[in-house]
Amino acid sequence: MRHTDTGDAAAPLLAASDLVKTYGGTEALRGASLDLRAGETVAVTGASGSGKSTLLHCLAGMVRPDSGTVRYAGERLEEAPERRLSELRRTDFGMVFQFGQLIPELTALDNVALPLMLGGSGRTEARERAGTWMERFGVWGQRELRPGQMSGGQAQRTALARALVTGPAVVFADEPTGALDSLASERVMTVLTQTVRESGTAVLLVTHDALVAAYADREVALRDGVTAPAGVGV
């Protein structure tokens, strides 16, 4: 697990303030704010088109806001060079998307090992560590299968193992169960929440599903690009 010193145990590990992002003439975010502490799981909920994914992408350094600030461990991400943002996504941030986005030509084991190899680990060491995480997520038996040979739930648990194999401080999960049935969704969320609580990883979870959001420690509602605590009108 990667431990990041924020300088203040009570300070948020990741914080966005007054984010504005416009695409063409459409305001995706219009003053959104959010904070995330180490070891905390926060669900961002809202209707389709409310700006949930844009908020996640800004917090992960994948999209630069037009205005506002994003701080990770005190570092201003909206001002950071692309090289630094790429480094953070390789070392400190783990990413999980709705359809997993596994590489179809690689086996499940090599998909999970890939981030470690990109970080400089040897193939043997990377595969050993990847195997440990696949066992934790219950997909060791599928290690030699390619993504197209796995069920949706198996592929998504493999994607979660890949996101956590580097020991990230933050996992960004964008509708991670959106393509799964209710049983597979429940298993994915149970394993994810148990694993991150054991490791102290923070999770930013974007979802439109109230049952998935219930796994989080706290819920933030996003409506028309503005955030508020769940249940509070915006």
TrEMBL record:
Where does the ABC transporter domain lie?
14-234
Could you tell me which PROSITE patterns the record lists for this protein? ABC_TRANSPORTER_2
* Gene3D superfamilies, A to Z: P-loop containing nucleotide triphosphate hydrolases
Q: Which UniProt keywords apply?
A: ATP-binding, Nucleotide-binding, Transport
| Top-rank lineage group of the source organism | Bacteria
- Give the coiled coil ranges: none
Q: Name one GO molecular function term.
A: transmembrane transporter activity
The answer to whether UniProt assigns keyword Isomerase to this entry is: no
An example GO CC term for this entry is: plasma membrane
Q: What is this protein called?
A: Macrolide ABC transporter ATP-binding protein
Organism in which the protein naturally occurs: Streptomyces griseoviridis
The upper taxonomy is: Bacteria, Bacillati, Actinomycetota, Actinomycetes, Kitasatosporales
